[in-house]
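[agent] plan:
  1. take the single chain provided in the ticket
  2. run structure prediction with default settings
  3. attach structure tokens to the ticket
  4. add a short note for the reviewer (M.T.)
[agent] executing step 1
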Amino acid sequence: MATNKFEAAKENSWPLLKNCLIIFAIASIPGLAGGYIFLSHRSFWQQAEATKAK
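[agent] step 2 finished; step 3 output follows
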């Protein structure tokens, strides 16, 4: 009985978990892109400041 309940719970929770992972992946893409752009722009501005200071 318990194993059947466990199997049923596992089968029911997997699609939900998969959806959560997909949503998390989609939601993290703009964050990662934004962080990358922010870091690259920041290093660009630091280089510009360094060349300007010279």
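[agent] step 4 note for reviewer: The CA atoms of residues 3 and 9 lie 10 Å apart.
[agent] ticket updated
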